[in-house]
Write a structure and sequence with these properties.
By secondary structure, the protein is an alpha/beta fold. Helices cover 42% and strands 12% of the residues. The strands form 2 sheets. The chain has a 5-stranded mixed sheet, with helices on both faces. Strands 1-4 form a two-stranded antiparallel ribbon. The longest helix is centred in the middle third of the chain and has 19 residues.
């Protein structure tokens, strides 16, 4: 698909996200940012994380769990906390290890090889980043938006951050019952869609680092680099 057609198809997906009411109809306690605060803090991307990195020709798609809650949306004015987030700085250091030449002095810069998104695109009612999430939220969003998005962009690599983001995506492709740690530590990735290699990793925030040290996480991302170099 050429760039113009890809951009048009992406625009349709964004419009569908803005109009989505699946979780409203199922009383899932989520709010679409197109509705919250009368859409004041919504984005014209598929989700708020994509405002940071959103190349439709990306080699690497990074998939998180969710962006946050309504309070965070208002507090940050709908913008990603790039400069003051230890988690985001850790992520970009790992992305450097994977071989992407990001600007270490300004991680906010857009990179043509990166696309960031989340498995859940709407906002939780409370709880911030640590708020509880529910199965229907993943099923609705991954089926309606994440899977079509991945198959539109067709990145070489999809990096899933954390167990819930990982299993929600792989479930859509029929992969079930494998322990998350085994998925992280196995040498070969799982191939989905149009030859996209899925590399599950532990979240690089403080909780994720308690479950898997940052040093071990560096090794996980180095495996991604080796895969990209072999593919090239």
């Amino acid at each position: 698909m050429d760039s113009q057609m890809k951009q048009l198809a992406y625009g349709v997906l964004v419009k569908q996200r803005k109009a989505c009411t699946l979780c409203d109809s199922q009383q899932c306690e989520l709010q679409n940012p197109s509705i919250a605060f009368s859409g004041k803090y919504d984005t014209n991307e598929i989700g708020h994380w994509t405002d940071w990195q959103g190349s439709l020709n990306a080699k690497i798609m990074v998939i998180g769990q969710d962006w946050g809650d309504i309070g965070t949306l208002e507090k940050q004015g709908g913008e990603c906390n790039v400069d003051n987030s230890a988690t985001n700085r850790a992520l970009m250091k790992l992305i450097q290890i994977a071989g992407v030449d990001v600007n270490e002095n300004n991680f906010r810069n857009q990179h043509p090889d990166l696309f960031f998104t989340n498995a859940i695109l709407c906002m939780k009612s409370d709880g911030g980043l640590a708020g509880k999430v529910k199965g229907p939220w993943f099923r609705n969003c991954v089926n309606s938006f994440l899977k079509p998005l991945l198959e539109l962009i067709q990145p070489k690599i999809a990096v899933t951050l954390g167990e819930k983001a990982t299993k929600s995506l792989l479930r859509e492709y029929g992969h079930k019952g494998i322990s998350f740690r085994n998925l992280v530590e196995q040498e070969s990735p799982i191939i989905v869609g149009a030859n996209t290699a899925v590399f599950p990793v532990f979240h690089c925030g403080s909780l994720g680092q308690r479950n898997r040290s940052f040093e071990l996480q560096k090794g996980d991302w180095l495996r991604i680099r080796r895969y990209l170099e072999l593919d090239d």
